[in-house]
Amino acid sequence: MTLDLDFVRSQFPGLDSGWTFMDNAGGSLTLEGVADRVRDYLLHTNVQHGAGYEVSRQAGERVARARSRVRELFGAAEDREVVFGASTTVLLKFLARALRSQLGTGDEIVVTNVDHEANIGPWIELREQGVEVRFWNLDPESLRLETEDLRKLLGEKTRLLCVTHTSNILGSIEPIEEWARLVHECGGMICVDGVAHAPHRRLDVQRWNVDFYVFSLYKTYGPHLAALYGTAERLLELDNLYHFFVPREKIPSKLEPGNPCYELAYGCGGITDYLEELGTRSGRGEDRLASAFEAIAAHEEGLSERLLDLLRDRPRVRIIGHDRADRSLRVPTISFVVEGRSSKEIVDRVDSHRIGTRFGDFYARRLIDDLGLAARDGVVRVSLVHYNTADEVGRLVEVLDTVI
Which of 43, 132, 204, 396 ranks highest by number of CB atoms within 10 Å? Predict the structure, then answer.
């Protein structure tokens, strides 16, 4: 698979700013096609849905088509299994609230110390109604969530497992399909944070057999919006979050209080359009999205190896995560610390060369604290995506060569 990099970069006007963007896990650049759709919606169909006149019908049809296009990104079976929300944080709070009537004293939820706080905090709040929250902690030596440790936490009282598909610190890809099987054998459900995974790999929620899966569209080349997948069966069981007269069976509407942001939802259809075009240009086969992500993964693996090669060569550098670029193990979100140096100091030096990186805990505060890295200002994180180039990584390596 070959990535058509000229085509890719032509779709992101932000790349013409004179900056090199390597903070993409915090928010990617937006596709021009997405912005065009948002503008067109606002200028031509910015009316309320549900009326009988033509423009209202057209507006509703546009958002419905966009929901279907996001459904294709998930690999979901039905459009009604896609819930839009302002952010992943908001959607997970909504999900926890909508599950309250199904959880009570003695029920158990398993969370990790690796996740973004968005997939920890809402579940901890359920302790107020007697739910026990158990932590599945990273092995500090392997820097992995060990499946054997999970087996010890699961049992007949387990109602929900909340995990990340890819850590926004470690960049590691986790065996979600296996974990889903294990928790289902106990009669529980699984909720997956896919924010750090979705920009880099083809999603396939049906094959993985997950109950809930959420990611941020603004980190996947779209506008500031997020989407939650839930199987129709699970969504129908959830409590209504909207007005009292909205039927419990009306999904996804009952989980989108106030309705989604129409123009942003419509814009998201441009993400799928772009990826399908990229797949056509990059590979062969009927699944154009799969072809696109195969080309993306191969390209990003090469970018990652160039940076990791430098970091492995420096004795004072500790890579936080896999130190090889193997695409089966990690995405190009690369974190590290340098002995005797604060992460802020390193990032400040890199920023001065108009290369955007970042330091900190990235809302994975529990992981950074447990690894003893808070006093260093967290980690330096370089998060690449497929529109980055070998030349850009080369410039970063030259800068880091003088800094670390």
Answer: 396
Q: Is the dihedral of CA 353, 11, 172, 189 positive or negative?
A: positive
The string of pLDDT tens digits covering residues 304-361 is 999 999 999 999 999 999 999 999 999 999 999 999 999 999 999 999 999 999 999 9
Pick from 215, 237, 272: which residue ends a domain? 272
pTM, entire model: 0.97
Q: Are residues 222 and 243 in the same domain?
A: yes
Kind of pairing between the strands at 355-356 and 226-230 = unpaired
Domains in the chain: how many in total?
2
Q: How far apart are CA 10 and CA 71, in angstroms?
A: 26
CB of 1 within 8 A of CB of 295?
A: yes
What CATH number did the domain enclosing 182 receive? 3.40.640.10
